[in-house]
Design a protein that fits this description.
The complex is a heterodimer of chains A (255) and B (290).
Chain A: E1 13-22, E2 25-35, E3 40-44, H1 51-58, E4 66-71, E5 74-75, H2 81-86, E6 89-91, H3 104-113, H4 119-124, H5 132-141, H6 157-168, E7 175-179, H7 187-204, E8 207-211, H8 215-221, E9 224-229, E10 232-237, H9 239-244, H10 246-253
Parallel strand pairs in A: 3-8, 3-9, 6-7, 7-8
Antiparallel strand pairs in A: 1-2, 1-4, 4-5, 9-10
Chain B: H1 2-33, H2 40-56, H3 61-89, H4 93-115, E1 128-131, E2 134-137, H5 138-160, H6 162-172, H7 174-179, H8 184-210, H9 216-231, H10 236-256, H11 264-276
Antiparallel strand pairs in B: 1-2
The chains are: A alpha/beta (255), B mainly alpha (290).
């Protein structure tokens, strides 16, 4: 499957001179970047650098004070998260956000069901919204088969993280924003998790933006990395180049 | 002795089944809309009075019941949510719970002023048949059958339809449900509508037994509240188990103990459960408090 962008060469996501202040604090202070189709962009930066505020502006959870967010070249600034979700933007959560009293499979079906069928179909259509096959595929891809019928609330933290990620792919998204996907996942699971994400990127042709603290994870997953400090981009390039950038090293050590 | 116990058990289950229907509505409102509805008992009285009112106007019973159902959906579903719950919930769960207590007093006085303070008889089924020494009356059997069908239908709706699943998701995590494109407001409204249907059913089933009186709601509401707590506040199954248990215990207590303490039974059970098993028989521990 190849991503079907509007015109070739148009970035999937583009931020144009984004600003966001809280009182006198300029959390995001003029950030511009674009993400090409199929890219895995890592966003790193010390605590308080503005990563989360940037993410919230991109996801429609926080309106930017100034600037624009473009999705496939179309201005989506200020659009609600649900509206963005309908346009193929999905996300994972830093803090776990699964439905604890539904089974793993039901969680997956829920994540996709509002994207298919009509209003009438909601009442009279197939109860699984035709998504069982897609759910089984995700269960397989994220190695969750054995847990399919268990309640999501009973899974371990790492397993819930996998489920959260799998849910983000249920609607066949063009763009997935991953908020600290590696946080709290143990080392054994982490390698497998990275492989799953990479496979999803290649198979589904989705574009990723990843916020992450775990440097090794970012460096081994991402194709490009930007580093943010004090609300501005201080480095943009290959993982290797960013890792060796003296400004990045100073931002991390000096903080 | 055996036949007497069996007889009491049937009577207890029949009344308990009605408590269960009311308790299910109670816990659905809590799960789906953070609403602890202390007017739930009066929500049963309103359709009962409406049915009597419609029949007094000349409507046959089979038309009066759907007409009362429509009134219940409109007043106890849509209006209740829009006028009371929506504005009060911004102030907090406890504030809303207190507002429902006020609503209970208001409803009882409206019913008293418009319907009078008498206890009115309500049409029910008479007769029955013998099974050995056990007399099975049609009224109790109908109550049990209606409850089984209603609970099964509700369970199937919640677990096997897209809308039901979306309702569960809304109850468990509204912000993520909204993010996934689920129409959270519609799901919450649906919860109130389902509660209105449940209390109307309960009104039809319980009124032949308890008669229709403006202040019946207080006791019925407290019993259903206790049933929901005893069963575990966050589960449909729990409300069913709690309702049936309360009905049976209450019936046995009334037979073997002094009758005037019948209404104290649910309160005693409530206190014991709150003290020793606050998450109920089937419930899970919750961090939310009322």
């Amino acid at each position: 499957m190849t991503p079907a962008g509007p015109t070739p060469g148009t970035p999937v996501l583009e931020a144009r001179d984004l600003h966001r202040s809280f009182g006198g604090v300029r959390a995001v202070n003029g950030i511009s970047f674009s993400v090409a189709p199929g890219e895995i962009l890592g966003v790193i930066g010390p605590n308080g650098s503005g990563k989360s505020t940037l993410f919230n502006c991109l996801l429609g959870q926080l309106p930017p004070s100034a600037g624009q967010v473009l999705l496939d070249g179309e201005d989506v600034t200020g659009m609600t998260p649900a509206a963005l979700n309908r346009r193929g933007v999905s996300r994972t959560f830093q803090l776990l956000q699964v439905f604890p009293q539904l089974s793993v499979r039901e969680n997956l079906i829920l994540a996709g069901q509002e994207h298919v069928g009509s209003r009438l179909g909601r009442l009279f259509g197939r109860p699984d919204a035709g998504l069982t096959a897609a759910a089984e595929r995700m269960l397989h891809l994220f190695r969750l088969e054995a847990l399919a019928d268990l309640l999501a609330g009973g899974l371990s933290y790492g397993q819930q993280k996998l489920l959260d990620a799998a849910m983000a792919f249920m609607a066949g998204p063009r763009l997935v924003l991953l908020d600290e996907p590696a946080g709290g996942v143990n080392l054994t699971l982490l390698g497998a998790f990275r492989e799953r994400l990479r496979a999803m990127n290649q198979e589904a042709g989705s574009t990723f933006v990843v916020i992450e603290h775990n440097m090794d994870f970012v460096m081994s997953l991402c194709t490009r990395v930007i580093c943010i400090a004090e609300g501005q981009i201080i480095a943009d390039g290959s993982p290797q180049a960013v890792r060796e950038n003296p400004q990045v090293i100073e931002a991390y050590l000096g903080h | 002795m055996f036949w007497l116990l069996a007889q009491l058990l049937v009577a207890g289950l029949a009344i308990g089944a009605i408590y269960a229907l009311i308790a299910i509505g109670f816990s659905l409102l809590w799960q789906g809309a953070q609403t602890v509805n202390f007017a739930q008992g009066d929500f049963v009285s309103l359709p009962a009075f409406a049915i009597l009112g419609f029949t007094a106007l000349g409507l046959p019973l089979w038309l009066a019941i759907p007409a009362a159902l429509a009134v219940a959906v409109l007043v106890l579903g849509l209006l209740f949510k829009r006028v009371l719950v929506q504005p009060m919930l911004h102030h907090g769960v406890l504030q809303l719970a207190i507002a429902t207590m006020a609503l209970s007093i208001f409803l009882e006085n409206v019913l008293k002023d418009t319907g009078g303070a008498e206890a009115y008889p309500f049409p029910g089924l008479t007769g029955g048949f013998n099974l050995g020494a056990l007399f099975l009356d049609w009224q109790s059997l109908t109550v049990l059958a209606v409850t089984v069908v209603t609970v099964s239908a509700l369970n199937a709706f919640l677990s096997r339809t897209r809308t039901g699943r979306a309702m569960q998701a809304t109850a468990q995590n509204p912000s993520v449900a909204r993010l996934l494109g689920i129409d959270v407001e519609r799901m919450i409204m649906l919860t109130f509508v389902i509660n209105a249907v449940l209390v109307t059913l309960a009104a039809v089933l319980i009124s032949p037994v308890y008669l229709v009186k403006f202040d019946n709601g207080g006791q019925i509401g407290l019993t259903a509240f206790s049933a929901a707590i005893v069963g575990g506040f966050n589960q449909v199954r729990g409300a069913v188990v709690g309702g049936l248990l309360l009905g049976v215990v209450e019936t046995f207590a009334a037979t073997y103990g002094p009758d005037q303490y019948r209404t104290a039974v649910p309160m005693v059970l409530l206190i014991l459960f709150v003290l020793f098993r606050p998450h109920g028989l089937l419930g899970r521990r919750e961090e939310r408090r009322v």
